[in-house]
């Protein structure tokens, strides 16, 4: 809207000068300004609040304050990774470590169910082996805390654990993975499985 007013005012000023020249009210004796082309004369007309020319106006204008560019934020060091938990080398520690691995692999099971089944299968002895049942008769005895046979261990072993049926944590995780696929969870196992 301001541009439209300036354009209208510029047009009116140009017409007024043209009319004065045509009417003969301006003479050759007047300052050189009258001899300038109309477009240039119109350019020097200030349509703002004062009658100063653009050159005079710029000399009285207060310069904009310079603002220093904002300093880039200092990058923060990446947080140190959480220390890996240390589990005691006993039945409680083995179960707790197995549960953490199971959570990371979406394998269901609770501490109580795992503990209950371990106590029934091996009484907590990671070196337990069954040499008398049908699996033993077939040459593949049940081994470890949850009495897992080698083919079942190989099929349900969880990556990231030792590939060793005698390893207490590996044995628990593989057995719970098997129970999850077969029974929905180790929580649903209440007898030999």
Structure notes:
This protein is mainly α and 193 residues long. It has a domain at 91-187. The protein contains 8 helices and 2 strands. It has helices at 2-23, 38-44, 54-60, 91-104, 111-121, 134-137, 150-156, 168-183; strands at residues 129-130, 142-143. A two-stranded antiparallel ribbon has the order 1-2. Helix 1 crosses helix 2 and helix 4 (91-104) packs across helix 8 (168-183). The longest helix is centred in the first third of the chain and has 22 residues, at 2-23. It is rod-shaped and about 105 Å long. The two termini are 86 Å apart. The model is unreliable at 1-10, 18-22, 25-32 and 38-45 (pLDDT under 50).
Count, helices: 8
Strand line-up in the sheet with most strands: 1-2
Strand content: under 5%
Helices and strands, in order, run as: HHHHHEHEHH
Number of strands: 2
Pick out the low-confidence regions: 1-10, 18-22, 25-32, 38-45
Main sheet?
2 strands, antiparallel
Roughly how many Å apart are the termini? 86 Å
Shape: rod-shaped
Which structural class do the helices and strands define? mainly alpha
How would you state the average pLDDT, rounded?
A: 80
Fraction of residues in helices?
40-55%
Q: Mind telling me the C-alpha Rg?
A: 46 Å
Organism: Gordonia mangrovi
Keywords: Signal
Protein name: Transglycosylase SLT domain-containing protein
Pfam family, one: SLT
What key phrases describe this protein's structure?
193 residues; mainly alpha; two-stranded antiparallel sheet; 46% helix; 2% strand; disordered N terminus
